[in-house]
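Design request, tokens follow.
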């Protein structure tokens, strides 16, 4: 809830509480149920307890607790201590066993929320911890674990994962991160970027026969907030997204009378991973254009995919010498919704009259690649 990191900002929780309460009152939503989980940037549990109404953080001392939301069980875990907290582990397993043994609760999800993702789940478990949480949840396929911490984006369908239970990455309300090793198109050309100040959230609706998880981009901003090894909080509107969906709704169905039957009907598993490759849908997806600064750029008419084009493998060489001019994995701007229709790749140092050969392959989040598109052009 706050950026503390043990820096003594515990009283700031009260400021956050005041902001929440003022806006809930403004929107006529004072009966809304809020459930807070403890994270690594928060202050002490005591500071959280003193900062919010008891109903928002009703823990009994360990930062974990159980709630009921319209007949559904919601279990909040403290992922800062889970791996070594024997009492918390025992509590979670006992509650999951009791809830899922109730015939009246058959087919219903048990929602579990905690700050850090557990290992081997969403986005290959990046920035994950608490392997014992994955171990303890593995016997309960009705569990749906929601976690943040990683800031990994929810545009990517790797942000939902099923094996023994369902794990969902819930994004971030400040900035999203992307796998390292890629470049973004910026005002200054291609740059090594792994973050984008994009605010994202999930909307979860539970029905009798399914749970629907909608992914939403609240806002997005193109400028860099991590430069020279320093973070900046200087977001700069106007934004490139405003309350748009950032992908198709994920639907979780818990079909089956046994745990194994439920697992057998999971759809977001490693074995069911997407195998459809992106494709360029225009006859001439590549063209040479002049950028805003008068330089030469390669314009890509963005490819289409059944889920998401993640990046482009871009290679531009000097036709006469074969020397590489650009060799990069360029992100497709998928974190902006709607995604721009074209992407302009700058060609630095292009010489007047010289011929260049461009080769571009569109790649999705699972590594499925399109046939290459090519273009020979002059500056």
């Amino acid at each position: 809830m706050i950026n503390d990191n043990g820096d003594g900002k515990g009283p700031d929780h009260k400021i956050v509480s005041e902001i929440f309460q003022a806006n809930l009152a403004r929107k006529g939503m004072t009966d809304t149920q809020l459930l807070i989980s403890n994270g690594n940037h928060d202050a002490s549990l005591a500071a959280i307890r003193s900062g919010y109404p008891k109903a928002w953080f009703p823990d009994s001392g360990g930062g974990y607790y159980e709630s009921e939301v319209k007949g559904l069980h919601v279990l909040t875990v403290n992922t800062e201590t889970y791996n070594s907290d024997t009492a918390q582990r025992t509590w979670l397993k006992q509650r999951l066993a009791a809830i899922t043994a109730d015939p009246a609760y058959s087919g219903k999800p048990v929602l579990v929320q905690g700050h850090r993702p557990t290992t081997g789940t969403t986005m290959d478990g990046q920035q994950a911890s608490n392997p014992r949480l994955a171990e303890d949840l593995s016997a309960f396929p009705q569990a749906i674990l929601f976690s943040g911490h990683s800031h990994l984006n929810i545009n990517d369908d790797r942000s939902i994962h099923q094996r023994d239970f369902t794990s969902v990455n819930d994004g971030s309300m400040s900035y999203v991160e992307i796998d390292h090793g890629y470049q973004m198109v910026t005002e200054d050309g291609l740059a090594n970027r792994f973050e984008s100040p994009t605010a994202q959230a999930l909307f979860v609706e539970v029905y009798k026969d399914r749970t629907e998880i909608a992914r939403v981009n609240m806002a997005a901003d193109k400028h860099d907030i991590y430069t020279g090894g320093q973070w900046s909080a200087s977001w700069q509107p106007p934004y490139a997204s405003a309350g748009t969906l950032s992908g198709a709704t994920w639907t979780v169905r818990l079909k089956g009378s046994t745990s194994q039957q439920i697992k057998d009907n999971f759809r977001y598993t490693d074995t069911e991973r997407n195998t459809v490759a992106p494709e360029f849908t225009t006859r001439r997806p590549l063209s040479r254009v002049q950028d805003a600064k008068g330089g030469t750029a390669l314009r890509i008419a963005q490819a289409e995919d059944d889920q998401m084009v993640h990046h482009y493998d871009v290679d531009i060489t000097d036709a006469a010498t074969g020397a590489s001019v650009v060799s990069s994995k360029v992100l497709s701007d998928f974190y902006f919704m709607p995604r721009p229709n074209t992407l302009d790749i700058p060609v630095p140092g292009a010489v007047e009259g010289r011929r260049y050969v461009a080769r571009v392959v569109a790649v999705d989040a699972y590594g499925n690649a399109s046939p290459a598109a090519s273009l020979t052009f002059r500056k």
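Comment from the thread starter after seeing the answer: thanks! The chain has a mean pLDDT of 93.
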